[in-house]
Amino acid sequence: MRRNRLFYSSYNLAEEKNEEDIPVIKSKRFLSIEEKNFLNENGYLRLRNFAGTDTCELLRQRLNNLIDEFDPESSSSIFTTHEADRDLQDEYFLKSGDKIRFFWESDAFAEDGKTLQYSKRECINKVGHALHVHDETFKEYCSKLSPLASSLGMKNPVPLQSMYICKSPRTGGEVGPHQDSTFLYTDPPSVHGLWLSIDSASEDNGCLWAIPGSHKTSVQERFVRSIPFEEEEEGSGKPSLKIVPFEKTMDSLPQEGGVPIPTEAGDLVVLHGQLIHWSNKNNSQKSRHALMIHVIDGGCSYSSENWLQYAGGVSNFPQFSNSVENSRR
Questions:
Q1: For the whole model, what pTM was predicted?
Q2: What tens digit of pLDDT does each residue of 265-290 get?
Q3: C-alpha 60: how far from chain center
């Protein structure tokens, strides 16, 4: 009898191999000693064939459905990593941490600032930041990441944020050098990015770049609220966002020494939160879709100054629905 579950672990492959059209996370999902050593030395790790291409296509189709259902009149929020171009009082972005919201590419609109230059799908930069909380397809994919997150040494891994990044041809812009801990700071720092390549990614269409070993750099800056979240909930004012120096040791994040991290569809890249990484503009005719899940250690202190917050605070952070042991069954 065919099952309704969307994803199956590697432990079920033998018994399920005759079932058709069921997306599968194919690889082992606990890191080996060698993989852990590479990650500890370099700050990133590429896991080949982590998910099946059918899984990638399922996630892509679900994202496309969400975009098709999205009313473009409901958002004018443009995503950029360039500080000078950010709208630091963008309430739509500021309150998106526990919601599904849509963000445009900077080249999405014509000169009138209202008319889309291309199709809606081509003009979306990303969708976030709680797909894994509110959408069943993304929720089930995320639940399968618990063993991998535990392999990173986290005592209580928390899947805090999800982003589906489109980087379409013609509109897909660059993402400048950054450290993920700038945006999702814990004390001590704990965030790791789990970046699933939905499309093959090369230097032409904007693959990831990183500086090996740069995760040993301190957290240079933090992206914070002008008013701590608990004060905002108490009605103390309307917050804005700002970048502030933190443990700063350099004027700006470098790109010298960076290496490309090309991927095939289904590969997953683990990114340490202090790793300096970026991606270039998509200069090809091929899309470069990717799904990022950011995981933090719930045993660390999460700052109320961080931009991303959940209504009701830390106690309402999402949890992995399946334990490591359950994922083996």
A1: 0.88
A2: 999 999 999 999 999 999 999 999 99
A3: 15
